[in-house]
């Protein structure tokens, strides 16, 4: 795995955004895997800037988001549907029919999860996936204990994730307890993956992901077995890494 440590967040966002920009220039029909959360917001802003500068277009792009809270309707201000539209999709020329964000309000999730997997397959798979990492080592909402062979599924959020994400809700009781998420195996099929992590509270998860055993206790550790992954870290998130 490649690791880029960079203390200037603007520079880090620019480096990560450049991976998308290069891909979209060489393949305007690329399939992108998108993450929500605080970490990628700066990257999305750089992509909006690049689009406005006329460097890239999303007109033929297809996107798949990683996850969504169960029970939140798409117009809830903490839904990931809402987030993605606020932070990126409303500001570029993407076509709505090529935007896939898991729904948090389905009745038959067994059918729906398979439908979501089938859409990814039908699109030809994900060319470039951006990830954040949870302080418990999760990628998407693949919480500790999730099988590394998992595909899109419903999951119970870990108490630590509920605490971490409560910062964005009025109270911790408002944080949904369940989510729909791409599985680890779904993510591992992306042809290229970039993961961003900033801040002290990600340091243990980053160490476990990069230098711990490959284990479902830190689902990000599965990335060690992927052929094309780059971690973009600030020094706080990289603090516990041992020189190898
Ligand atoms: C979001 C997602 C999560 C976040 C992770 C980090 O779609 O899949 O795995 O990437 O929880 O969140 P932030 O960036 O808010 O620290």
Topology:
Layout: E1 2-5, H1 9-26, E2 31-34, H2 41-52, E3 62-65, E4 67-69, H3 80-87, E5 99-100, H4 109-122, E6 128-131, E7 153-156, H5 159-165, E8 178-181, H6 184-188, E9 192-197, H7 203-211, E10 229-233
Parallel strand pairs: 1-10, 2-3, 2-6, 3-5, 6-9, 9-10
Antiparallel strand pairs: 4-8, 7-8
The chain binds fructose -6-phosphate (F6R).
Fructose -6-phosphate binds next to loops.
The main β sheet shows up as: 7 strands, parallel
Distance between the termini: 12 Å
* CATH first level: Alpha Beta
CATH topology: Rossmann fold
Low-pLDDT regions: none
Counting DSSP H or I runs of 4 or more residues, the number of helices is 7
Strand content: 15-25%
- The value of Rg in angstroms is 17 Å
The assigned structural class equals alpha/beta
Provide a brief overview of the structure.
This protein has helices at 9-26, 41-52, 80-87, 109-122, 159-165, 184-188, 203-211; strands at 2-5, 31-34, 62-65, 67-69, 99-100, 128-131, 153-156, 178-181, 192-197, 229-233. By secondary structure, the chain is an alpha/beta fold.
Verbal overview:
This protein has 244 residues and is an alpha/beta fold. It has one domain: 3-Layer(aba) Sandwich (Rossmann fold). It contains 7 helices and 10 strands. The protein has helices spanning 9-26, 41-52, 80-87, 109-122, 159-165, 184-188, 203-211, and strands spanning 2-5, 31-34, 62-65, 67-69, 99-100, 128-131, 153-156, 178-181, 192-197, 229-233. The strands form 2 sheets. The chain has a 7-stranded parallel beta sheet with strand order 1-10-9-6-2-3-5, with helices on both faces. A 3-stranded antiparallel beta sheet has the order 4-8-7, covered by helices on one side. Strand 9, helix 7 and strand 10 form a beta-alpha-beta unit. Helix 1 (9-26) crosses helix 2. The longest helix has 18 residues, at 9-26. The radius of gyration is 17 Å and the shape is globular. The mean pLDDT is 97. Fructose -6-phosphate binds at residues 35-39, 66-67, 132-134, 138-141.
